[in-house]
Design a protein that fits this description.
single chain, alpha/beta, 27 helices, binds phosphoenolpyruvate, binds magnesium ion
Length: about 600
């Protein structure tokens, strides 16, 4: 038994098996059950074969024009079979029973150490190739587990998280009904994870320096938030003490946070809605106290319910269930926002759905997606609109169009809504009037917000895309992630422009991008005059607690100071100074 002492920031004591989360390296490390070892090996093998086809394809493309570069990929193809990398990772999975991502990372670390010892500078340089290849293997592992939540779903119910650092956006993806508590290397009493732990009501110890390196995945530990300690390999007596003290701190099922607006310290009501991807997320949204759904990313239907794409009844049933579950709160359904890349990723399955095949050579994130794609596929768009309008009588529906870059597109979509309503009326079931809004996520839409505002019932600012298109930074490209700056003066100005246009035309405006999930950025947005937000459910309790501690008038003054600053560094400094140490989103959303 060993004791580590840190700073207890949320009281209570729990025991559990450690899940290690090394966020800086973006690699999650956890113990898998013996039954899951084969699955992890299969994932590794799948990633290796995807990597092999990608490398072969790249090589073939370069062969004619750049033969010298093509040979670099020959080297990577050879390394793919080198016993030190993928086969070694497989051995690590078998021996240590860890997830494939972590095994690849470890095999890479071992390889790099060998390269570091080599005297020949040419060979030493090859370390970059190994890094590139290990990165590709990890990327291909990520394809089937796109979010951390998916990764963490493999974690069993008696887990505790040990992380180097737990940022709000990361914490928001953890299923806190499974994870019992957490411990972090970083942090202090005023650190935002402290607020987070208190609002989640889980025991937590922070400021442990290197606990994430000392504790092994799967190791049994006790987190004692009241005594500021983490106990490794507790004795049976210690575990008995935990059992005596571990009153179940969680509210019973069905209970949760109060529903209703958050209120700032000076009494301003702030609306907090939830972003959801799957109908199953509703429980988390309600538990977190969301007033309504500010963004339902309906395209996730395509990932799980492929048949529903062309099936009006199936879609109607799904929308109706969500509306009923959230009533009287509103549900903002964003019509399919899918791009050709995403279609390409699901090509095999989508080939089954006529009209959704994609031209892979033309796939691009700035190309055919969102409302543009829906307008190009009117048959499928009509099905979605009819299903939505039929469901409208079962709750409070709002329909939102994504990726709008012109008033003309909006008008075309509104015509189609009118036609869908007329179809239903002919069937004898005229739908109620439904609010229609747009996501403001393309700079052109932000600059013409006054023109769009005349023709819609609401706006939602999609900062994830707005940032990438305004700053010309692909949100999925790690190489430019340091340029993805929510605090760039251009972004703040655009948000103010949109807020003003909405106010002038008396329509509500919310922020539904990841910016709203980050407490520091949320505070600034409130200072900029926004009062409606939609965020990932896990971020809502923190936002509510944080807003209760801040005054809107002071945030307004802070925002005015910030709007005079010219650089992101100065803005960040001013914000941090005012709000305390908080982690700002960098490097893309989702
Ligand atoms: C956005 O762009 O900010 C947004 C909310 O939508 P998504 O992240 O789904 O593109
Ligand atoms: Mg978007």
């Amino acid at each position: 038994m060993q004791r580590l002492t840190g700073i207890g920031v949320s009281p209570g004591v729990v025991s559990g098996r450690a899940v290690i989360l090394i966020q800086r390296a973006q690699v999650l490390r956890y113990q898998v059950s013996p039954a899951r070892v084969a699955h992890e090996l299969a994932r590794l093998e799948e990633s290796r074969s995807r990597s092999r086809s990608q490398l072969t394809e790249i090589r073939a493309r370069l062969a004619d024009r750049r033969p010298e570069m093509a040979s670099l990929f020959d080297a990577q193809l050879l390394m793919l079979d080198d016993p030190m990398l993928a086969p070694r990772a497989a051995e690590i999975i078998r021996q240590q029973r860890v997830n494939a991502e972590w095994a690849v990372q470890q095999a890479f670390d071992e390889c790099s150490a060998v390269f570091d010892e080599v005297a020949d500078p040419y060979l030493r340089e090859r370390k970059g190739d190994v890094a590139d290849l290990a990165g590709r293997l990890r990327m291909n592992l990520r394809r089937d587990v796109s979010t951390l939540r998916d990764l963490l779903s493999g974690v069993d119910e008696s887990s505790v998280i040990v992380a180097d650092e737990l940022t709000p956006s990361l914490a928001a993806q953890v299923d806190w009904t499974k994870v019992r508590g957490f411990a972090t290397d970083a942090g202090s009493r005023t650190y935002h994870t402290a607020i987070l732990a208190r609002s989640l009501d889980v025991p937590a110890v922070v400021g442990l320096h290197n606990a994430s390196a000392q504790i092994e995945p799967g190791q049994l530990i006790v987190i004692d938030g009241s005594a500021s300690q983490v106990i490794l390999d507790p004795t049976p007596e210690e575990l008995a003490r935990v059992a005596r003290h571990a009153d179940d701190r969680r509210p019973a099922a069905g209970e949760g946070e109060p529903r209703g607006p958050a209120v700032t310290a000076d009494g301003v009501a702030i609306r907090l809605d939830a972003n959801i991807e799957f109908p199953d997320d509703l429980a988390a949204a309600r538990y977190a106290g969301a007033e309504g759904i500010g963004l339902y990313r309906s395209e996730f239907l395509l990932a799980s319910e492929l048949d529903a794409v062309g099936d009006e009844d199936r879609q109607y049933a799904i929308y109706r269930d969500i509306l009923e579950a959230m009533a009287p709160g509103w549900v903002t359904v964003r019509t399919f926002d899918i791009d050709e890349d995403q279609l390409a990723a699901r090509r095999a399955r989508h080939a089954l759905v006529p009209g959704w095949e994609t031209d892979e050579t033309r796939a691009s994130r700035q190309g055919l997606r969102g409302l543009r794609l829906s307008l190009m596929r009117p048959e499928l768009f009509r099905i979605q609109l009819r299903a939505l309008l039929r469901a409208a009588s079962h709750g409070h529906l709002r329909i939102m169009f994504p990726f709008v870059s012109s008033v003309a597109q909006l008008r075309a979509a509104r015509v189609m809504v009118g036609e869908a309503a007329a179809d239903l009326a002919r069937r004898g079931a005229a739908p109620p009037r439904v609010a229609i809004g747009v996501t403001i996520e393309i700079p052109a839409a932000a600059y013409t917000a006054d023109l769009l505002a005349r023709e819609v019932d609401f706006f939602a600012i999609g900062t994830n895309d707005l940032i990438q298109y305004c700053l010309a930074v692909d949100r999925a490209d790690e190489r430019v992630s340091q340029l993805y700056e929510p605090l760039h003066p251009a972004i703040l100005r655009m948000i103010v422009t949109v807020r003003r246009a909405a106010a002038r035309h008396r329509i509500p405006v919310s922020v539904c991008g990841e910016m709203a999930s980050d407490p520091a950025l949320l505070a600034l947005l409130v200072g900029l005059g926004l009062t409606e937000f939609s965020m990932t459910p896990g971020a809502i309790p923190v936002a509510r607690q944080m807003l209760a501690e801040l005054r809107r008038d002071e945030l307004g003054a802070l925002a005015r100071r910030i709007r005079r600053l010219a650089t992101v560094e100065d803005i960040e400094h001013e914000l941090m100074h005012a709000i305390g140490r908080l982690t700002l989103i960098k490097g893309g959303a989702r």
